[in-house]
Amino acid sequence: MKLRTLFLAAAALLAAACSNKPVQTVLKTDVPVRPAGQENVIGLTTEPLETVRIGVVGLGMRGSDAVERLTYVPGAVVTALCDIVPERVAASQKALADRGCPAAKEYTGSDDAWKGLCEQEDVDVVYICTDWSHHVPVALYAMEQGKHAAVEVPAAGTLEDIWALVNTAERTRRHCIMLENCCYDFFEMSVLAMVQSGAIGEPIHGEGSYQHNLDPFWKAYQGNWRLQENQKNRGDLYPTHGLGPVAQVMNLHRGDRMTTLVAMDTKPFNGAKMSETLYGKADATFAAGDQTCTLIQTEKGKTILVEHDVMTPRPYSRMYQIVGTDGYASKYPMQVLCFREFREGEEVNAHTVGIERTYTGDAMKEKLSAHPVPILTPELEALAKEVGGHGGMDYIMDYRWVYCLRNGLPMDIDVYDLAEWCCVTPLSRLSIENGNRPVEVPDFTRGAWNQVQGFSYALAQ
Fold first, then answer.
1. How far apart are CA 371 and CA 374, in angstroms?
2. pTM of this prediction?
3. Residue 131, class by beta-carbon neighbours within 10 Å (0-12 exposed, 13-18 middle, 19+ buried)?
């Protein structure tokens, strides 16, 4: 029997070798045809708004901070508040009053109260800070009501939802912005400016991650929804913090694009135990690995490594590394720059390592200061640090999209950025569950990824 089995296997391999049909190695997903009459929204601009009226949906940890932060943004006014918990609405209403702002209209008490907010006439932008399962329904309904959608990360977790956001943004010609604050951290913006000046040559590799031990935070998520997302879903569930700043450096859908990814993960060693901590019973079916790694190839032959780990005691890190042909920048565990320079007087032999000249501290700041960030003025930077929000990057993020709406300019982060950064979640899962096979990354622009050359911030004349 064993001999016969071996013979049949050999015959199958021989038949495959002799066949003219290529062996399918890369998994592909469907790219829906763009509906008739619909066009891409690359560089989308809308009529300038003197005042940007904002309705905030979800007033938990992120949403309540956003309400107060928005009161400091020029031209922004919060006109509506929504949360299923009435006490949260009352707390945000008080925050507005304490800042001398007019009261906002309230929506609460039911799971679909947000629909009324989306329908409210004096709302231009629906700012979505709910649990992940509500991100897409609220954003889609907001755009259908003629509002712009600003969605917390990750905006979507399935390809079906991602394509729905893309198609709705294209059809309604409304902005669908992902609120990726890490693109506005000071070091990342400075490195982007340095890269664009050519100081590190051609960027050829980037690394980004979300490594954050969430042990102290799990119980703060209403109904344990965040842990439940990890229980149900495999793959990188939170890729955008690490990928977003790297994607801007790599000019994704602005001259380059992601083409293929491969992912793998560890077993859920700690994940399964965490359910026992919260529920009193270990979950043998826990899906998300403690550590997930995704390697991405681009059209121009560049690579990006993205990692996710919220289950181990590893120190907080977004990794953020940019490798260029002539230089290197890294943020974690310490900020450092490195170029094609070496310490003088070092003997070079088989044991010589670490003779590169690196820049840290004041020396690094001096290097970065030679490449100013176009959107940062000293006044804006000082105000951002005063208002706060992860050191100021949250404020700059909100300042920027409001600024763009007020001036009728394209967004820094558009719906295709949203799609590209979020698609790592379903595609990494697809790769992992198919033996770590490579997966083709869809072109969410459907052919327009090379229409714009290079990422840039839009500025009013």
1. 9
2. 0.94
3. middle
Res 354: pLDDT: 85
Angle between the 159-172 and 132-144 helix axes, to the nearest 10 degrees?
A: 20
What is the rounded (10 degree) CA torsion for 131, 320, 418, 62? 30
Please give the full DSSP string across 160-195, using - where no structure is assigned. HHHHHHHHHHHHHT--EEE--GGGGSHHHHHHHHHH
Residue carrying structure tokens 């993960």: 265
| CATH numbers and ranges of domains, the chain | 52-152 (3.40.50.720), 185-375+415-440 (3.30.360.10)
- The arrangement of strands across the sheet holding 176-178 comes to 105-108, 76-83, 52-57, 125-128, 148-151, 176-178
What CA–CA distance (Å, rounded) separates 343 from 353? Answer: 11
CA distance 284 to 275: 10
pLDDT single digits (tens) 263-298: 999 999 999 888 888 888 878 899 999 999 999 999
| Contact (Cβ atoms closer than 8 angstroms) between residue 174 and residue 146 | yes
Evaluate if residue 153 carries a pLDDT over 80: yes
